[in-house]
Amino acid sequence: MRKLSYPLIRVCALLLSTVMLLACSLTAIGESLTTDYTALTWSDAFTQLRTRMEKEYAFTDWKGVNWVALGETFGAKIQAAQSANDFTAYYLALRGFIHSIPDGHVHVTNLKPLDDQFIGGGFGFAVTTLDDGRTVISWLDPTSPAAAAGLLTGDELLTWNGLPVQIALEQVVPIFDSNAATAENVRAKRAVYLTRASVGAQAQLTCQSSNSKTVSVTLTAYDDGRLSIKKCYPAAVLSDKIREMYQGIDSDEPTPDAMVQPTMLNDNIGYIRIWGEVDADLAQTGNMVSTLELFRDAIGTMIDNGCKGLIIDLRNNLGGEDAMSAAMLGSFYAQPAFYEYQNVYDETTGARAIVKPDGSDTTALMILPADRVFTGRVIALINLKCVSSGEGLALGIRNLPNGDTLGFYGTHGSFGLCGPEANLPGGLTVGWPSGQSLDADKCIQVDSRDMVGGVAPTIRVPMNQENALRVAAGEDVELDMAIQALGGKAE
User: Which of 27, 73, 195, 239 could form a disulfide with 253 if both were Cys (CB 3.0 to 4.6 A apart)?
Assistant: First the structure.
């Protein structure tokens, strides 16, 4: 049983065997993993899709999803697109439907050439919404028309196309990105996509500098290779190579040689980066590498080195196997502890039931102590791209008496068990979770409700103007703060 964020499900084929992953095991009893609707009309395929999702989706009641209303709204749009033979309209309607469900495990294929018709242009700068509600220019291309017009980093954005920036941001619908499950994720994505448009589109904006000077300019979007997205958090600081390879995004970042990357920092602080909870052969040796063994070896090395504190970097973690997350947490728990119940959809009954995890004699997936347990202080670095089983690691570390989670933001808030997929006309695939993760009281855990969820930072890094500009310049503010929290000096 696994929690795989959707990029990881297909990463094997899309990385051309760079990553050798096991196929996602079924989380629903008696169902086919993938259904083929490609021979149907757009409208009929959508109807079949919506009907099946209504039956199987794991969080209909939890998130208050109104399938009838969604079917009427987006079914009419897809029917209109079919009547006009307008594939772009069909694609946009399907993306709108998918993005109406606040769950990172609900996904639809991106078609980059179509996406770029709407977000392929930038204006030469990126903005960040700060904790105090202001939106500032956090990155500026010094060679851009925006810089020539007098804009500066740190300037506060006041208006956008005649609207106060707060209202303009609320109108941004980031349907070309992955689904957001929390309100803070929506806010972050809106800031990223406010400054994206079709090439040639114009934006009128007003900014105010620190000396209260106001600048009003009209800018035209140009093809910048999505550069402004790359200058926003977390892309400005953190490599996301595996996701980028999956999405077909060109990147100069090196491919990781392993899913676990440990190192020792100054002041005897250990650091372990975990890309995901799944075995892989990233170094292309021809042999599958055990991610759990790599992690346990890294922990053993930290213990042998007398490490005084440990940083587990779960930012941009793709998720993976629940059992592996629980086993990794065993390196911090001296006594057995509860991880989850797995509440799985059974097609034969049309209901969910708690099942025994793979290889378990009990219905509860437990955290069992490893042979060697690190007992020092542990800080997990988290962000909005820490999703699925990565969130399970974050939760387990946060629950330690000597554990903390640290970041600008919490985790994604999408912890459901991976489920079925449907292939639709136009080379599109839709997927959704059909199983739930339950806590010890058998209540849904981590998955967002009313746009609140995930694992929150116990040490929250302020997104103030200073930090926003540092991040845009490529400084790892979160790592520096974690080192300081462990009594060390920033690198």
Answer: 239
